[in-house]
Structures are given as structure tokens and as C-alpha cells.
Amino acid sequence: MQDTFDTINEIIRTRRSYFPPEYIDKEIPREVVETIVANANFAPTHRLTQPWRFTIFRGNGLTKLADFLGEQYRQNTPPAMYSEAKFEVTRTKILRASCVLAINMQLHSDKVPEWEELASVACAVQNMWLTATALNVGAYWSTPGNLDALGDFLNLSPTQKCVGLFYMGYHDDREKPAVRKPIEDKLTWVEE
């Protein structure tokens, strides 16, 4: 049991955000992606609503997503603020990833409040992130400003919501230090 504890402790403490510029040109096999998303399915969920849903973009799907987000930037940026460089960065960020998942949430307003569904989805994403870390896959959760438009692009129903994008790609495996204040600064003990 100690080995299990040591392993999970190591994975939790070495999980970091790895961004598309850090990704190397190496495709994540579909089986690895399937393993990562399978572990999302074991997140805690109130009333077993299991609200997490994912749209997985790979291959030509990445180009479709990049084109959509680039065009959103072009259409929604005032001419005086528009930058062709920003347009290209928007597209390139997607295309540098081996895989991008749209993180979607199925709402069950008749059973649980929306914040509980979001908490479950966040736990599902953490499960994916920890699994990716264990498999040396870099990842990060991004929340673009145009989530409503992204929901339309994904053809989500009125009871579904997109809450972000989960980028994944292999990286050069250099360790990043943790940037955390001590846990003692975040605790209040009540013992009497």
C-alpha cells in the first residue's frame, strides 16, 4: 500500500501545466487519449449525474477548431485592436497540440445545482490531468472568452455548456518547480 501512496503522492505533486509551445511534434496515440478520458469517468458526482462530456479534436479536427477560433477572433475584435499575429497565435496554439478536448457539462437542474455539476467536471478534468502526468503527456485547461460561441460550434443542447478546452501534447519532460505557498498558510484548525 505504501508504494501506491508514494506513486499517487508523486503524481499529484509533479502535475504541472504544459502549454502548446512546449509540446513536441509527436502524436498521442488514440489508445492513450482513451485511457486519459476513461479515468475522467471515475470522478465524484452527486446523485451520479456524471455531467462530464468531451469533444475530442485530433488530426483534421484540430484544423477545424483552429479555423473556428481564429475566425471568432477576427470577427469579434474591433479593427483598431486586431492583430494578425494574435490571429496566428490563436490558430497555432491549437495546431501545436496533439489533441484538444472541449470540456462540456451536461446540466441536471432538476437534480443538482449547476455548481455541483461544475465541481464534478473539474474533478473529472483533474483525473485526466493526473493520468496525463503519469503518462508523460503535458496538459492544461484553458477557458477562452467565447465559450458561448464554442458551445454553438460544438452543437451543444440547451442543457449543455462548454467550460473550457483541455490541451494535450508530449513535451521534453523537463521538470517545473511547484509554485505554491505553504499549506500551513491556508489552514484553520478548530480542535476545541
Mean pLDDT: 96
Low-confidence segments:
none
Strand order of the largest sheet: 1-2-4-3
Radius of gyration of CA atoms, rounded to a whole number: 18 Å
Family: Belongs to the nitroreductase family.
Domain Nitroreductase: 12-170
Cofactor: FMN
Keywords: Flavoprotein, FMN, NAD, NADP, Oxidoreductase
Written description of the protein model:
The chain is an alpha+beta fold. It has a domain at 17-57 and 98-173: 3-Layer(aba) Sandwich (NADH Oxidase), CATH 3.40.109.10. 43% of the residues lie in helices and 16% in strands. It has six helices and four strands, in the order ααβααβαβαβ. It has helices at 2-14, 30-40, 60-76, 84-96, 114-134, 147-153; strands spanning 52-57, 99-106, 137-142, 160-170. It has a four-stranded antiparallel beta sheet, sandwiched between helices. The protein is globular. The chain starts with a helix and ends in a 22-residue tail after the last strand. The relative contact order is 0.20.
Q: Outline of this structure?
A:
Its cofactor is FMN. With 192 residues, this protein is of the alpha+beta class.
Q: What topology emerges from the helices and strands here?
A:
Elements lengths: L1 H13 L15 H11 L11 E6 L2 H17 L7 H13 L2 E8 L7 H21 L2 E6 L4 H7 L6 E11 L22
Antiparallel strand pairs: 1-2, 2-4, 3-4
